[in-house]
Amino acid sequence: HLSSEQRLALVLTFEADACDLVADHGGRVIKLIGDEVMFTAVDAQSACAITLGLLEKVGPRDTPLPRGGLAFGPVIAHGGDLYGDTVNRASRMADIAIPGEVLIDAGIKSRAGSFSASQAGRRLLKGFAEPIEVWSLSAAAKHQ
User: Fold this and answer.
1) Structure pTM?
2) DSSP class of residue 143?
C-alpha cells in the first residue's frame, strides 16, 4: 500500500516522463490528469512510439500496469483542450484495454508504419452507436 507521498511522487514522475516522451517525438501535451495524459502527435508512428515508451517507463514501477487508447481523426480545439469523436474514441479504448495494452483504431493501424498490432475484434465503446474494429499494440509488438 502506497502512502500519499509515494503516490504523489509516482504521479509527478509519470507527468515528467510523459512530457519528455511527447516532446521528444514532436508532440504536444494537451492535459495531464493524475496518471493520465492526453497528447497530440505529428503522426501515427510518433503516437505509437510515445505510448509504448510510456508503457516501458511506467511498467516496471510499483503501480498497476498502464493502458492506453490511440485514435486518428479530426478534433475540435477550444480553450486549450480537444473535443470530438476522435478524443472520445481514444478515451473509451483506453478504458477497455487490459493493463499493459494499447488499443488503436483503424486510422492509427493504417498509418502505424513499422509498428505492428494484433486484431482485438469489434468493440462497442460507451457513447458510440456502432462497434468499431480495434487492434492491440502491446509493448511486445513494438516495431523491430
Assistant:
1) 0.90
2) -
| Angle in degrees, CA 34, 20, 109, rounded to 5 | 85
Closest CA relative to residue 29, chosen from 4, 74, 63, 21: 21
- The total number of structural domains in the chain stands at 1
Domain encompassing residue 71: 4-141
CA distance 105 to 134: 5
Amino acid at 73: G
pLDDT of 23-55, one tens digit each?
999 999 999 998 889 999 999 999 999 999 998
3-state secondary structure of 58: helix
Letter string b/e over residues 106-115, b meaning 16 or more CB atoms within 10 A of that residue's CB: eebbeebeeb
